[in-house]
Amino acid sequence: MNDVSLSAPDDWLAEPDQHLVKRGESRYPPLLDDLKDAPSALFVRGDPSVLELPALAIVGSRNPTRGGERNAFEFSRHMAASGFVIVSGLATGIDSAAHRGAIAAGGVTVAFLGSGVDVVYPASNRELANEVAANGALVSEYPLGSEPRRAYFPERNRLISGLALGTLVVEAARQSGSLITARLAAEQGREVFAIPGSIHNPLSRGCHRLIRDGAKLVETADDVFSELGPLASHALAQLEAPAPDSGGNHVRRDDEEYVKLRELLGHDPVDIDTLVRLSGLTIEQVSSMLLILELDGSVEKLPGGLFALLAPSS
Predict the structure, then answer these.
(1) Which of 20, 226, 263, 306 has its CB 3.0 to 4.6 Å from that of 302, i.e. a possible disulfide?
(2) CA–centroid distance for 137 within its chain
(3) Does this model's pTM top 0.90?
(4) In total, how many domains does the chain have?
(5) CA distance 132 to 15
(6) Which tens digit of pLDDT belongs to each residue from 137-190?
(7) In 3D, which of 78, 145, 152 has the Cα closest to residue 118?
(8) Residue 118: exposure state from Cβ atoms within 10 A (0-12, 13-18, ≥19)
(9) Are residues 254 and 221 located together in one domain of the fold?
């Protein structure tokens, strides 16, 4: 869709958090590689390995209500704490709230830009962009120095939805770029979720339209997790044996950290904060490990945010 230059200046690439990821390389995200219009290359500022993790896209209005902004933040924080990468577009409003929710949880977030990865738009989000890069990645298919263009934003929406297992629309008017992202998600075979709202709120109309068209109505983050958790297993399986150029940052189930986490879990319920404190691991690491163990039937998630080991089946 974009005739991107497959090169970047050596001095730019010399920085440890700046990368050019070409299609065909092992670190190119598999979900994007499956797209018929996948970019030939991605400019990444941050950690390119996070593009392989199971992700949820959260999108919505640039001018949301306070309730909508709060919902985006809380859904994002919950899903990030559960091990999902939160993907959005760094716009004001819902996008920004989604990124901040993931960061508040100590989780991972990714922003796809409608400009070069070195050009932050809107400029008011420059500080947030730096936080996203430090806690995940800023990504663009457009060459360095590319200024934002109107046509770039709907193009980049296919990457927001394409990288994620599902897309959650928080608030959106009937004519909204978020509805484009939701449509693209459906066309890509991804799950689509929408939060309902007041019939008197114009920003609820886009979500209500999506629900009428088959999107899943959700009221809590657990509603999203129950749908996406099983779908995450294939993506997580790829992380069990990191590619040689990935830096080996991901934890394997037979590593010392997993053994330690299993010992701390036991069969008595325990909360994630206790596991983080006792293990010395980050909340991001513990959340991802718990998700893997839950998906393979080793761990049970209980009400109240508690976890316990399941007895092996005979």
Answers:
(1) 306
(2) 10
(3) no
(4) 2
(5) 17
(6) 999 999 999 999 999 999 999 999 999 999 999 999 988 889 999 999 999 999
(7) 145
(8) middle
(9) no
